[in-house]
Write a structure and sequence with these properties.
With 85 residues, the chain is an all-alpha fold. It has one domain. 75% of the residues lie in helices and 0% in strands. It has 4 helices and no strands. Helix 2 runs antiparallel to helix 4. It is rod-shaped and about 60 Å long. It comes from Streptomyces flavotricini. Keywords: Membrane, Transmembrane, Transmembrane helix. This is ABC transporter permease.
């Protein structure tokens, strides 16, 4: 297992971290809809919620994309491992 983790390229680690961050953003935006207004002190959509739904859609797409890319890297690393039976 340790060898496989070493065989995962930096690209795979970056993709996994990006998937985690975008997933957290997705969950935070779904749970706490007014976080943009409270954190940044601006109201770009005048409380319509449109910006939040755009963020949810983009974060969902990013999470899915980065997850699939990271999965490919982990599978590549696993394929490099010698079979022991």
């Amino acid at each position: 297992m340790r060898k496989m983790m070493r065989d995962v390229r930096m690209r795979g680690w970056i993709e996994a971290i990006a998937a985690a961050i975008s997933g957290i953003l997705l969950i935070v935006t779904l749970v706490w809809r007014d976080w943009i207004e409270e954190v940044f002190g601006v109201d770009p959509d005048q409380h319509s919620g449109a910006l939040e739904w755009v963020i949810v859609a983009l974060a969902a797409c990013a999470t899915l994309t980065f997850s699939l890319l990271a999965r490919g890297e982990w599978r590549r690393a696993k394929a490099l491992q010698p079979r022991t039976e």
